[in-house]
Structure formats: structure tokens, C-alpha cells
Write a structure and sequence with these properties.
The complex is a heterodimer of chains A (544) and B (661).
Chain A (H helix, E strand, L loop, with lengths): L12 H26 L3 H9 L5 H8 L6 E4 L15 E8 L2 E8 L10 H17 L3 E7 L13 H7 L9 H11 L4 E10 L1 H7 L3 E5 L4 E3 L3 H8 L5 H5 L1 H8 L4 E3 L2 H13 L38 H5 L9 E3 L7 E8 L2 E8 L5 H16 L4 E7 L6 H5 L2 H14 L4 E10 H6 L9 E4 L4 E3 L3 H19 L5 H19 L1 H6 L12 H12 L16
Parallel strand pairs in A: 3-4, 4-5, 5-6, 5-7, 6-8, 11-12, 12-13, 13-14, 13-15
Antiparallel strand pairs in A: 1-2, 2-3, 9-10, 10-11
Helix pairs in contact in A: 4-6, 13-15, 17-18
Chain B lengths: L6 E4 L3 H13 L3 E6 L7 H5 L2 E4 L12 H11 L3 E3 L9 H9 L3 E2 L4 H8 L1 H10 L7 E4 L5 H8 L3 E5 L9 E3 L5 H16 L4 E5 L5 E9 L5 E13 L2 E7 L6 H17 L4 E10 L2 E8 L6 H8 L3 H9 L16 E8 L1 E2 L5 E2 L2 E2 L2 E3 L7 E4 L6 E2 L6 E9 L2 H13 L2 E3 L5 H8 L2 H4 L7 H5 L9 H22 L18 E7 L2 E9 L5 E5 L2 E10 L3 E6 L2 E10 L2 E6 L2 E7 L15 E2 L4 E6 L6 E2 L4 E7 L2 E6 L4 E6 L6 E2 L4 E5 L9
Parallel strand pairs in B: 1-2, 1-4, 2-3, 4-5
Antiparallel strand pairs in B: 6-9, 7-8, 7-9, 10-11, 10-13, 11-12, 12-15, 13-14, 15-22, 16-17, 18-21, 19-23, 20-22, 24-25, 24-31, 25-26, 26-27, 27-28, 28-29, 29-30, 30-31, 32-39, 33-35, 33-38, 34-37, 35-36, 37-39
Helix pairs in contact in B: 4-5, 12-13
Chain lengths: 544, 661
């Protein structure tokens, strides 16, 4: 397999501008990540430290094997919302006692670790990752339960009610999911660092292994105030739900730790005894670094996505030795297909080099089937404005052929990993195995834009539709109002399509530095290989 | 009348066995080693052509068992026996038995050994020959030691009539301590040499120990090979020896040399021997004759160019000395330091343990006569000398400084040694000025241990933390090719704790995108780049300074041999054991040994300094005394018990014994 050569002129003005813009965006993201790492702030952390409590990131740091990598998932959840950036939970994949685990940690400095709509989504995503990839699930629990204030505790309660789309009756699925992991023989471990009340109590309740910390862990369905309200009983919290009570009397606790570090030590021992073996074949190819410089990934994509991008330049800076064996290079060239490896894991890559046409869609369907035949996971590199439109193309069967591609993507059973480097619009997002297509992991670059279509197109479409409606009713078309509306639609569309907006809503697994793409993919692939890696044997009916 | 040797049995162990093997092999002779069980894997056993197990662990069962050694010679067809030094080297009966078995004895005639072996008869012989001697009185059993001591005048030296090596020797300053000293000297002499005769001798506290090497053949030729000075002593045992002596003028050299040579001729001495004197100013007094090869013989070899073992073997074969007195001259200056497993901070108490890392310095030329290698065990049964390091230089000052440097850059780790002390001694202005007397150590007080500077420890901690990091990544079972400690979001740094002596160190580090590390220790940030992690070490750049250190890991112990020498770091557990370890009180055995006598029982009130019990280890007695006024709560051992290093012996009121076990 030959290495790719570079098409990039690093001295060009475009490259330099792109790189400057990217570094500016990365600086912004870095400061957001720092803000997220601050959790509930210095004061809250000092208060916890006085009680001998470690910050959540230190708890996780101690849990991990020294020097092993840690991939944090959705670190910027709840950005630009009524909640603390990061959402109050830390989620990631890390190595404990030589075993990759899905680790979830409540941050007690953020509203005492209480649930909110963002961190619930993050938690559910964590459980999904554990289930799909067969990763032991370790949760560092310290949770006040549901945030009783609702609406983030700010603003007008009426407005909060009107805004609310969820309902209590739909909640609690997480407990179902925890026990389902256990049913699937995926171990679940709760390390309880503090109060775990009401719903929080079921987190250890549903777990396979519970580690409680002396004088710190307190687990009860109702804390002393609720007990007082419900039955009038005056209960002290140690006898109601203390660690010693649960490990000696109720049996809810399995291990009693002296302090936080001791609890972490015990948790590491529990993972060590799990006898965990990965079911996938693991890396089988040389894991040499790319020949092309990954630093140059910074200058490939323009902020406004207007300048063209050859996806080969991304691939050559991500895959082992920059080696890429391209499939059907001469046919349907707007979609690159080919095989390579990342950190030794073989992968099939689909990358956009323009809109999707009938030929490129059929090529994709064939390539996806071939990769399934040989049990090779797929990597989708998105920069897609959508399937081509127009009379000629409709007559040429673009909807039919695009459906073949979506059929193949939907029914493929090898793991899919998506990295959105630029646009991911409309059905193009579906065809490229977007979030809704059972993709195991989705990561986005800071330049990513995800929407039904581009903001300009959206404004233009709205304008044309409006003009048509006016004409049908014989009304005069108000150009001024239209311009105003179009500007508003474009602004709104632009803001909503931004990567940060998507990542804040946990609709991907996180925004990454382009230079980290290779390592992020490797961590995702290694997680996937903890589960069986097996291709599909059946698809939906192909529309011929 | 030459009798050629074809196969030489060496009735000794360790460095001297190797030393003798070297000359024998160079002369084309075959060789046989004998060994005690604990020595089975030591280098001298491997290096001999053949080796015979003596079966047993103590000296008495092995290297002192004449019958087993003669049987080994018979079985292997050896035709000569070299006794080395110590053990049977000065045993006239053994020398005789060797001859009677039809074998060649590499040493002086049995009669000379017998005559010189008894220090009192040797003194009389010297007095008769006109050599000055110090006043001495033999203590017959039941003799009045006090009267004898008064006759000689305090301070007196209590000395075993047989043997040497400082065993059975006690300096007594006043009458009050006399009885105790005589009793314990007798016991030590009895157990070491099988003869508990002791005598009292006048003690010159500030004199030099100067000795003359003599060498004679069986044709009546006898020369002296100049002097050695061996004044640097602890426990009456030499640790630094040199030739020539800075205090001996050519005239004095001739005078002392002639005194020694004529004494040797008077008794028909052959082979190598040493006549020891005390020197004060220009006055000298005869001390004793050692009828064997001396430990410190290499310094004489260095300045004369002779191979004394080769000469011994030639003489034993009946050959004539190949040179006359006039052919010998002194070339430059040589100094030897004896590297011991012992603790200078605990009065040079012998130490035991495994040598986890041994690498003679390669910085500059030096002769290493060593019996050990990495992995050797130093036990309680035999002498804890690890090696002799000898340098030869044009001047005394250069020799001293070079030897200090060689010792400093030698790697010897895993057990306590006197290396730092030797280095400090060699570098004192007093030593460099040649101001060496037998009370040098008490008078000058060189530092007993090198305390590494905090910055040196900090640098070592960073190095070890990152070496461990390399090892963990190399051993990783999952995600092995990912960059070390890779993160996509801000997470805490890695943290590793160490202890060295009383100092604790915590290293924080984090890997960077460029492959380097940000490391922090003691509040100082460092830019670190890890070079190559080899099987035996790590190269590293700290803030642009290139460092290479050799590393050995033994569990949580990291033995670091870096630019400043050896140091050891204990890696602290990542998760402290719950509850912690209760510190146990009470008096513990300072080393493995046997309880010789107990002097108190439970319930006794004792005063600070009062003798509680006597422990024997390494053929030396150790007095366990009360550290303070207290009541004896428990005496945990009885006379005759074997105790392990650190074993609890006595619990005094105020000690808290819980947590024991």
C-alpha cells in the first residue's frame, strides 16, 4: 500500500488564513474546556476539599492507570445554556487496571451532582457507549437526585414551564439501562463518594458492585427531610443510609472504604478481577505515525467552508504511515472510498470530495458491503452539502441510488465512526452515518456545521417559498420584510448549525482538535474492538 | 630441587580467591576452588577450573575445616594449596598437614608460622634480635588484669594472642572497663581463632601503622619490598592503605626494612610475610608478623611492579627469587581502599543484603579486586568486604583524588556500604597532607555518609518517574501505541511520590503534544524530553541539560546511578494501605546474629546505657544497651537464640509493641 502525497501548499494565503482561524477557534475551545474543568467553581471545590473530598477530575485521574490515555466524551455539554458548561457530569473512556471502562462522574461542585436535561442525556449516551462496545461501566456517584428547582433555577417559572418539553413520567430510563448492562454481562460498578439520594440511590441500587466510603457515602430513597415529611420520623443520616450501615446491615454496599483514595483503590481491584477480555481481533497492522504532518490539518478547512478540500489530505495526516488503498478512484469521484489503518486497526474510509451523485452513492453502497464482508469498521469523514438535486439527476435516479447508500449504512453492522470536518447537511448526514444511524462514535472539528441545509440556502429557500405563496394569493411581495426575515433565518440557521451548538446538545461525542483525530479514532476503535466486530449478513431490499 | 605445581587448590573465598586464581591461570596452572553453601554462585567458584562443595554455612564447617579441604585436594588431584589470608592461612598445624599429605604449601614453613603466630613469642624473638617492642603482659587464666594494666600504664590494648583483623581487640582507657573488655576479647578470640589467650599491650593512641613486606625463597634469599602505611582504621581494622608511607624517609625505610628482613632471616622465613610496626616520629616498635599474604598487598605490587602471588607460587615450587634487594625500587604512589558492606553511621556495623547493582567505575584506571557481582549476597557468615579498589599514580595527592573519584563513580547499591565515608576520608585536607595516624577517624571525623542535595534528589525523582512511565507504556496491554498520558481535555497531572531517607518528594508531570513533558517538583517547573529508555537506564533532557542514569528497580526501590553517584529512591505506594503501619517500639536487633548473653529480665529497672544483652554477629560482639532509664517490660530472647535483622529483642516501658508481626 502506497503512502499518499500532499496536495497542500502550506505557504498559500488560504492555508495560512485557515490555520489562523483554526487556532483562534481552538483557543476559544480551550478556554471553554478550562471553564468546564472548573466545574462549580473554586468556592464550591474549596468547600468540598475541606471535607476531604477530591474534585471529580482528580477522582477519575486516580482511577485511571498511570500514563494511559483518557478520552473525554461531550466535555462541552450545556454550553450556552442555563446550566454549568460541562453539565455537571464528566464522561469518558479510560483504562482502569488494564481494562478500558466507560467512566461517569458526578461533579458534586455543580449543584451537588444533581441531574439536569443535559447531563441526563450525557449519562444515557455513556450507558449506550458501554452497551454497544461492551465496556465495563464505572460510575463515581454523588448526586442530590433530580434538580427540584427545574428550568435551571433561573428566570420566570411560567416561561420555564412553557419551554419544558420533557416530563417526569419519561424519566428513570437510566436505571433500566444499568440493569440491562448487567443482563448483557457488562459489569456495573458504583463508587459512591457522597450523598446519593432518591433517584441517585438507584444508581448503586442497580449496580453489580458497590463501594461505599466511611462517613461519606449516604444512600437513601428519602433523606432525613423527606422522611420527616413522609412519616414524621426523625432520622439521622448515618443510620438512615451511612456507608457502615449499608455494608453491615442493609447489604447494599459490598465494600467499605476508609476514605476516597481507599475507595478508588478498591474500585481498581474490582476491575482487576473482572477477567475482561476484548472480543474484537484488536490491532493487526503496523501502527506507524503518518508520513504527512498532522499539524497541517489545522490549515485544511476554511471557517466558512467555501474553499475546496481534498479529503485525501485529511486521510494522509490521520492514517498509519499515510497509507491509503483507494477503491474505485475513477468512478463516482465525489466520494472517496478506500482502506487504511489507524494505530494498527484496519478501517474502511468514506470521505466526501463534493456532493453525492448516483455513481458515488452506488460506490458507497458497494464499499460498505465489502467492508462488512471482511468485518472491517468504517470511518466516515464528513464534508457534505447533500445529495445532488436537479431534473437530470432525479431522472438519473439520485433518490433511488441515495437510498441504496442509506440502506447500506443503516444495515451495516461493523462499527461506524464519524468525524465531521466541515459541512454535514441534510440527507448527506444520514448517508454518511450521522448520529441517528447507530454510529458508535461521532466527533466534530471546530469547523463542523450540521444542519438540514446551509444557512444561506435555507434563507433563500424560505424567500422563494414566500414569494410563491404571495404570488398564488395575488398579494404584493414585501421585499423589505422578506430581506429582514431572510437575514433572521440565516442568522438563526448559522448559529444552530455551528459545531458548538451541536456538541452542547450532546448530539455528538465532542469537538476535537484536528491534530487529535488519529488518537481519538484509535481510542474509539479500541473501544469498538471490546465488542465483537462482525459485518452484516442482510440488508433491506435494494431498490434497483 | 624444584617441585612444579600443576593444579592449585585455593582454600579461601571471595576477592582473594579470585586474586590467586588470576596469577595461577597466568602462570598456566590448573585451579580448584572450594566453597561454602552460601558462596555456591559467587564468581570465584565459576572462575576456577573445578570447584568442590565443602557443605556447610559457617567458617568452622567449611573454610576452617582442614579435613574437608585436604579431601577436596585429593579428589581433584591438586598438588598445592594456597590459603589466601584469614581462615587457615596462619594455622601451622594445617601447613604441616598439607606437607604430610604430599602437597605443596604455598606459604612460610610451619615452624615459622608457629613461632610468629603467637604474638607473645614473636615479641620475645624480636626483642632478642634487638628490634624495639612495646611493653606487654600475657593474661593467664586467673591472672590479675588490673595489676598487669597498671604495670603497663593506661590506655592498654587487650589483644588476642592468635589471629588478627581487629578481632578480639579492645582499647581500655581505665580500670573500670578492664574486666568486661578482657572477658569479651577472650570470647571473641575463642570463637574466631579457637584460642582465647589474650595479652595486654601499651596503647599508643596517635601513632602510625607501618608495615614492611618481606619475601624470601628457600635458598636463603630474602628481600623487603618497602613499607605500607595502614593507619586509617576503624574497629582496629584497616580500611585505607598506601605505599609508600608519607611519614617514612629513605633512611627510616632502610632502617625498618633491614630490621624486618633480618628478623625474617633469623627465623628462616620463606614466601611472603609482613612485619608490622607502630611508628611515632622516627621511633618504631615491633607489633607482630603476619605469616601470609596481606589484604593490602596490591599497593606494594603497584609501586614495585611485582606480582606477589606469582612470587609465592614460584618460591613454593622451590625456585629462587629472580631479583635482589638492589633491583627493587619505588615507582609513584599507590592507595587502596576497602569497600565494605557496613554502616559508618552505626559505628561501622557490618551490613548484610543483596548487591542489587555492582559496576566498577570506568572513569579512569583503577584495579578492582572484588569477590562480588550484581546479585551477590552478603550474609552474616563471612567477612563483609566487597572489594578493594587500588589506584597507582605519580604522586600521593593524585592517587588520593583519583581513588576518591573512582569510588564515587562506582555503582554499588542495594546494601549499606562505607563508600561515601571512604571518599570523604580521602578528600580531607588531613589525609591529603599525609597526616594519617591510627586515631585519624576519631580525630578528623570525615563525613560518614553523603547526603544528596535536594536538587539532586529532585532530578533523580523526575528521572525515575519518567522511566517508570516508559516501562508502564511498554507493558501496556490496551492502547499501547497511544501517546503516553494522552488527554483531549484538562485533567490532573500524573503524580508520583518518593522517599529518600527522611526526605519526601512528589513529582507531577503531564505529556505535551510535542512529545515532551511538563514536570514539576518542589514548585519548580521543568521542560523534560525523554531520550532512550535502555534495559539498564534512561537518558533525559531536563531544561536542556542532558542526563544519563543507570537504573535498577527492586520492587518499590529504585537504585539510581547518576552524574553525582549512587542514590536510592523508594517509590511510595499510589494508594496508601488503609490504616497505615503502626510504628513499633522496643529495641531491635541491628543485624542478624546470635544472643550471647542476657543481662536483665522482665521487671528490672535499668539506667540509660546499662547493658541489656550481647549479640554476636559477624564474629563480633554487639552490646545492646538501654537508651534511657526505664523498666524492662519484656525480654523477648534468650541466650543462644538466633535473631533476624530488626527482630524485637527487648521492650522497655514507654515502648509500644503492638503492630508487631
Amino acid at each position: 500500500m502506497l503512502p499518499l502525497t500532499s496536495n497542500v501548499d502550506t505557504r498559500s494565503e488560504g492555508f495560512r488564513k485557515n490555520r489562523e482561524d483554526m487556532l483562534e477557534m481552538l483557543t476559544e475551545i480551550e478556554s471553554l474546556l478550562d471553564e468546564a474543568a472548573e466545574g462549580g467553581g473554586e468556592e464550591a471545590r474549596d468547600r468540598l476539599a475541606k471535607r476531604g473530598k477530591l474534585p471529580i477530575r482528580e477522582r477519575i485521574g486516580h482511577l485511571l492507570d498511570r500514563d494511559t490515555p483518557f478520552l473525554e466524551i461531550s466535555p462541552l455539554a450545556a454550553w450556552n445554556s442555563n446550566y454549568t458548561i460541562g453539565s455537571g457530569f464528566v464522561l469518558g473512556i479510560g483504562v482502569i487496571s488494564g481494562t478500558e471502562c466507560l467512566i461517569l462522574g458526578h461533579d458534586p461542585s455543580v449543584r451537588a451532582g444533581a441531574f439536569n436535561e443535559f447531563n441526563q442525556k450525557k449519562l444515557m449516551r455513556g450507558l449506550e457507549i458501554a452497551r454497544e462496545n461492551r465496556l465495563p461501566y464505572v460510575q463515581c456517584v454523588e448526586s442530590a437526585g433530580a434538580d427540584l428547582r427545574g428550568g435551571g433555577g433561573t428566570g420566570d417559572p411560567e416561561a420555564a414551564l412553557k419551554r419544558e418539553s420533557g416530563h417526569f413520567a419519561e424519566s428513570g430510563r437510566l436505571f433500566y439501562e444499568i440493569t440491562e448492562l448487567s443482563k448483557l454481562r457488562i459489569p456495573t460498578i458504583s463508587l459512591v463518594f457522597g450523598s446519593s439520594t432518591a433517584g441517585g440511590a438507584y444508581q448503586p441500587g442497580m449496580s453489580d458492585y458497590n463501594i461505599f466510603i466511611k462517613k461519606q457515602s449516604k444512600v437513601f430513597l428519602g433523606g432525613p427531610p423527606l422522611v420527616k415529611m413522609a412519616t414524621g420520623e426523625d432520622a439521622d443520616d448515618e443510620s438512615l443510609g451511612g456507608a457502615e450501615m449499608h455494608t453491615q446491615i442493609s447489604g447494599l454496599g459490598d465494600y467499605l472504604a476508609e476514605d476516597e483514595l481507599d475507595g478508588i483503590r478498591i474500585c481498581r481491584e474490582v476491575v482487576a478481577h473482572l477477567n475482561w477480555r476484548k472480543y474484537g481481533p484488536g490491532p493487526t497492522l503496523p501502527a506507524d505515525e503518518p508520513v504527512l504532518d498532522p499539524e497541517e490539518l489545522l490549515g485544511l478547512v476554511s471557517r466558512d467552508l467555501r474553499s475546496p478540500l481534498d479529503m485525501r489530505d485529511v486521510i494522509g495526516r490521520v492514517v498509519d504511515g499515510s497509507r491509503f488503498e483507494e477503491f474505485k478512484p475513477l468512478y463516482g469521484p465525489t466520494l472517496l472510498c478506500g482502506w487504511a489503518s489507524v494505530h494498527g486497526y484496519p478501517i474502511g474510509i468514506l470521505g466526501n470530495n463534493g456532493a453525492l451523485f448516483s455513481e458515488s452513492s452506488e460506490k458507497a453502497a458497494q464499499f460498505i458491503q465489502l467492508s462488512n464482508q471482511i468485518d472491517v469498521p468504517l470511518l466516515f469523514l464528513h464534508n457534505i452539502t447533500g445529495y445532488i438535486v436537479g431534473t437530470d439527476f432525479e431522472q438519473g435516479g439520485i433518490t433511488k441510488n441515495g437510498s441504496k447508500m442509506i440502506n447500506a449504512v443503516a444495515n451495516s453492522t461493523v462499527p461506524h465512526i464519524s468525524v465531521i470536518v466541515g459541512a454535514s447537511y441534510g440527507a448527506g448526514n444520514y448517508g454518511m452515518s450521522g448520529r441517528a444511524y447507530g454510529t458508535r462514535f461521532t466527533f466534530i472539528w471546530p469547523t463542523a456545521k450540521i444542519a438540514v441545509m446551509g444557512p444561506k440556502q435555507m434563507a433563500g429557500v424560505m424567500s422563494i417559498v414566500g414569494r410563491g405563496a404571495a404570488a398564488r394569493r395575488g398579494l404584493e411581495f414585501d421585499e423589505e420584510a422578506d430581506a429582514k426575515r431572510a437575514a433572521g433565518v440565516e442568522y438563526w440557521g448559522e448559529r444552530r448549525s455551528l459545531g458548538l451548538h451541536a456538541t452542547a446538545r450532546v448530539s455528538d461525542d465532542g469537538m476535537i482538535d484536528p491534530r487529535d483525530t488519529r488518537n481519538v479514532i484509535a481510542m474509539a476503535l479500541s473501544a469498538c474492538h471490546t465488542q465483537v466486530v462482525e459485518g452484516a449478513k442482510a440488508y433491506g431490499t435494494w431498490r434497483m | 630441587m624444584t617441585k612444579p605445581i600443576t593444579r592449585l587448590l585455593i582454600a579461601n573465598r571471595g576477592e582473594i580467591a579470585r586474586r590467586i586464581l588470576r596469577s595461577a591461570h597466568e602462570m598456566g596452572l590448573g585451579s580448584v576452588a572450594v566453597f561454602a553453601d552460601p558462596d555456591a554462585n559467587e564468581p570465584f567458584v565459576r572462575e576456577a577450573d573445578q570447584a568442590v562443595a565443602l557443605r556447610g554455612t559457617t567458617s568452622a564447617e567449611t573454610y576452617l575445616d582442614a579435613g574437608k579441604i585436604l579431601e577436596a585436594a585429593r579428589r581433584t588431584g591438586a598438588d598445592a594449596i594456597h590459603p589466601g589470608y584469614g581462615f587457615l592461612a596462619e594455622n601451622a598445624d594445617f601447613a604441616r598437614a598439607v606437607g604430610e599429605a604430599g602437597l605443596i604449601w604455598v606459604g612460610p614453613p610451619a615452624a615459622a608460622i608457629a613461632e610468629m603466630g603467637d604474638k607473645l613469642s614473636a615479641k620475645r624473638r624480636m626483642q632478642a634480635a634487638g628490634v624495639p617492642t612495646l611493653p606487654a603482659v600475657e593474661l593467664k587464666p586467673g591472672a590479675d588484669a588490673k595489676r598487669a594494666a597498671r604495670e603497663i600504664g593506661f590506655p592498654v590494648l587487650v589483644k588476642a594472642a592468635a589471629g588478627g583483623g581487629g578481632k578480639g581487640m579492645r582499647v581500655v582507657e581505665s580500670e573500670a572497663d578492664l574486666a568486661d573488655a578482657v572477658e569479651s576479647a577472650r570470647r571473641e578470640a575463642g570463637s574466631s581463632f579457637g584460642d582465647d589467650t589474650v595479652f595486654l599491650e601499651r596503647w599508643l593512641s596517635s601513632s602510625r601503622h607501618v608495615e614492611i613486606q618481606i619475601l624470601g625463597d628457600s635458598h636463603g634469599n630474602l628481600v623487603h619490598c618497602f613499607e605500607r602505611e595502614c593507619s586509617i582504621q576503624r574497629r582496629h581494622q584497616k580500611i585505607i592503605e598506601e605505599a609508600p608511607s608519607p611519614a617514612v624517609s629513605p633512611e627510616l625505610r632502610e632502617q625498618m626494612g633491614e630490621a624486618a628482613a633480618s628478623a625474617g632471616r633469623a627465623i628462616g622465613y620463606t614466601s611472603a610475610g609482613t612485619v608490622e610496626f607502630l611508628l611515632q616520629g622516627e621511633d618504631f616498635w615491633f607489633l607482630e608478623v603476619n605469616t601470609r599474604l596481606q589484604v593490602e598487598h596490591p599497593v606494594t605490587e603497584a609501586i614495585t611492579g611485582l606480582d606477589l602471588v606469582r612470587e609465592q607460587l614460584r618460591v613454593a615450587q622451590g625456585e629462587k627469587l629472580g631479583f635482589a634487594q638492589a633491583d627493587l625500587s619505588i615507582d609513584g604512589h599507590a592507595i587502596e581502599a576497602r569497600l565494605y558492606a557496613e554502616d559508618p553511621e552505626r559505628d561501622f556495623l557490618p551490613a548484610t543484603g543483596h548487591i542489587l547493582a555492582w559496576q566498577p567505575s570506568t572513569t579512569t584506571g583503577a584495579r578492582f579486586d572484588s569477590g562480588v557481582e550484581t546479585g551477590s549476597e552478603v550474609g552474616i557468615a563471612f567477612d563483609p568486604m566487597l572489594a578493594k579498589v587500588i589506584v597507582h599514580a605519580p604522586t600521593r595527592r593524585e592517587a588520593a583524588l583519583r581513588l576518591a573519584r573512582v569510588l564515587e563513580t562506582t555503582r554499588v547499591q542495594g546494601l549499606v556500604t562505607n563508600r561515601d565515608f571512604l571518599v570523604a576520608t580521602l578528600r580531607t585536607p588531613e589525609f591529603l597532607a599525609g597526616d594519617t595516624t591510627t586515631d585519624f577517624i576519631e580525630r578528623v571525623g570525615p563525613a560518614r555518609r553523603r547526603l544528596p542535595a535536594r536538587a539532586e534528589l529532585a532530578e533523580a525523582a523526575v528521572l525515575v518517574a519518567l522511566a517508570a512511565q516508559c516501562d508502564r507504556r511498554a507493558a501496556a496491554r490496551v492502547l499501547p501505541t497511544l501517546p503516553t498520558g494522552w488527554r483531549n481535555t484538562p485533567m490532573p497531572r500524573e503524580q508520583v511520590g518518593f522517599r529518600s531517607g527522611d526526605e519526601e518528594l512528589t513529582v507531577h508531570y503531564r505529556s505535551r503534544r510535542d512529545g515532551g513533558f511538563d514536570a514539576e517538583i518542589d514548585g519548580i517547573d521543568h521542560d523534560v524530553r525523554v531520550g532512550e529508555r535502555t534495559a539498564d537506564g534512561l537518558s533525559l533532557e531536563i531544561d536542556g541539560r542532558r542526563i544519563f542514569a543507570t537504573l535498577t528497580r527492586d520492587g518499590d526501590r529504585w537504585l539510581v546511578h547518576g552524574p553525582a553517584g549512587d542514590l536510592e529512591l523508594l517509590q511510595l505506594p499510589r494508594f496508601p494501605a488503609p490504616g497505615g503501619e503502626g510504628d513499633t517500639g522496643g529495641l531491635r536487633a541491628p543485624m542478624p546474629g546470635k544472643v550471647l548473653s542476657t543481662h536483665v529480665s522482665a521487671g528490672d529497672s535499668v539506667e540509660a546505657g546499662q547493658l541489656l544483652l550481647v549479640l554476636e554477629a559477624m564474629k563480633m560482639e554487639h552490646r545492646i544497651t538501654a537508651p534511657r532509664d526505664a523498666e524492662v517490660v519484656e525480654l523477648r530472647v534468650a541466650e543462644g537464640d538466633q535473631v533476624a535483622n530488626g527482630e524485637l529483642l527487648v521492650v522497655l516501658s514507654g515502648d509500644e509493641p503492638e503492630g508487631e508481626g
